[in-house]
Amino acid sequence: MFGTTGNTRAGAGGQGSKKTKKKKRLSKMKSTSGKYTMTCMAREDHGQPIFGCQFNNRLKPGEPKILATVGSNRVTIYECSSDGKLKVLQVFADPDTEETFYCCTWTEDGKGKSLLAAAGARGIIRIFSPAEAACVKHFLGHGNAVNDLIIHPSDHNLLLSASKDHSLRLWNILTEYCVAIFGGVEGHRDEVLAADIKITGSHIVSCGMDHSLKVWKLNKPELQKTINLSYTYNQRATRPFPTVKENFPEFSTRDIHRNYVDCTKWHGDFVFSKSCEHNIVCWKAGKTFQTWDEVNFSTTETTIILRLDITDCDIWFMRFSMDIKQNVLALGNVKGKCFVYDLSSTDPNQISHNVLTNQKCNAAIRQTAFSRDGNTLVFVCDDATIWRWDVTNNDTLPEDTS
C-alpha cells in the first residue's frame, strides 16, 4: 500500500520512512509559538505513519482529555494529563498485520460509555469499547479501503463512512443496519477521501480523488423514514433491510479545486475544503445569500469566501481540524510545521495565523485534533510521532460548559 508512486499516502513527496525504534518514547520539551507551547512528544513503536487522531469530545468538561490515534495496524488511546504528558491507556492491534488504519471517530453506546470506531485499508469498520477492552462490533460492506469516519452530530448511533470504492455509507451501529449508500450514477468517480455532516444533520459534504465536492441531502423524507425504520426493523424478517440507494447529490462541483480534495468540513452554511494546492478554500454553492434548501443539482455557481494559504502542503491525505466552537483551524504541512488560523474575525481579510514549529518535528503532519476546551492541540506525523501543544496560561481559552 505504501509504495513510491504518487497514488499512495506515503508517496508523492511524503516522508514515509520507517524508524527502527522499538520502544514508545515520551519526551518533555518546550517550544513556544504565539499562545501555544509544545509540551510533549511521543513516538509509537510501529514506526509507520500515523494517519489519524481524534479527541473524545463527548466527555464532560472536567473529565480527562482522551485521545485516539491510528497508524499501522494499531489503535492507541492516550490520556492528555494535566501535567502536559501523554499517558498510554490502551492499545488495540488488528490480528491482520497487513491492515493499516486510516481514520477513527468517537461515539457512545446507549449507556453513555465511550466507543471508538476505526477503519482502514481492509475496508472493515471496527467498533472498540475501551470499557470492555475489546472490539465489540465490526461492519462489512465497502468494497475497498475506508478513508474517513464521521458520527452524526445529534444521533450517536449513525456512522458515516467514506471509501475508496467511490461511495459513502450510513450505518446504524446500534442495530447494525446499513441505512443508506451514497454513490452511483452521479456519485464520485474515484476514491472518496473525506466527508462531514452539517451540525444540523441536514446535509453531508463529501470530497475525493475526482477533484469534486458533493453535497447530499440527509433530511429527505425517504431517508428520515429509513433511519427511523433502522431502529425498529425486525431482525428476523425474511427480507433484508431496505437500504436506500442515493445516486444523486443535491449539488456537485469541480470548480473549487484542480487536484485531489482530501479534507472538508462544514462551518455553518459554508464549506471549508482542502486540496494538494497549498491552500484551504471556504466556499458555498450559489449566491452567498442562498440557503442550501434553495440549491439543487442544476445549480452550477459557487461563491468563494476566502482562501487560507499554507506552504509545503502538496501531498494528499493531510487533514485539518477545527475546535468545537469552530473559531480555530489547524493544518500541518510536509515539513512538520502546523498552521493555526484564528477564524473568529468577522472580516475574512483579517484572519491571522501562527505557525507551530519545533526543530525535531520535520515529518509530514497527517492530521490535527483539538480537545473539547480548545486548550490542547495534537498532531500526528509520518514518522510515528505525536506532538502535543497547549495554550499558555495567560491565553487560556474559556472552559466550555455546554
Give a written overview of the molecule:
This protein has one helix at 221-232, and strands spanning 25-27, 31-33, 36-43, 50-55, 65-71, 74-80, 86-93, 101-108, 114-120, 125-129, 134-139, 146-151, 158-163, 168-172, 177-182, 192-197, 203-208, 213-217, 244-246, 251-253, 261-267, 270-275, 279-285, 302-309, 321-322, 328-332, 338-342, 353-356, 365-370, 376-381, 385-391. By secondary structure, it is an all-beta fold. A hairpin with a 5-residue loop joins strand 25 and strand 26 (328-332).
Which strand-content bin applies to the residues? Answer: 35-45%
Number of strands: 31
Assign the structural class, choosing from mainly alpha, mainly beta, alpha/beta, alpha+beta, or little secondary structure. mainly beta
Compute the average pLDDT: 89
Q: Main β-sheet: number of strands, strand sense, barrel status?
A: 6 strands, antiparallel
Runs with pLDDT <50, length 5+?
A: 1-7, 11-32, 395-402
Round the Cα radius of gyration to an integer and report it: 20 Å
Quick take:
It is built from one helix and 31 strands. It has one helix spanning 221-232, and strands at residues 25-27, 31-33, 36-43, 50-55, 65-71, 74-80, 86-93, 101-108, 114-120, 125-129, 134-139, 146-151, 158-163, 168-172, 177-182, 192-197, 203-208, 213-217, 244-246, 251-253, 261-267, 270-275, 279-285, 302-309, 321-322, 328-332, 338-342, 353-356, 365-370, 376-381, 385-391.
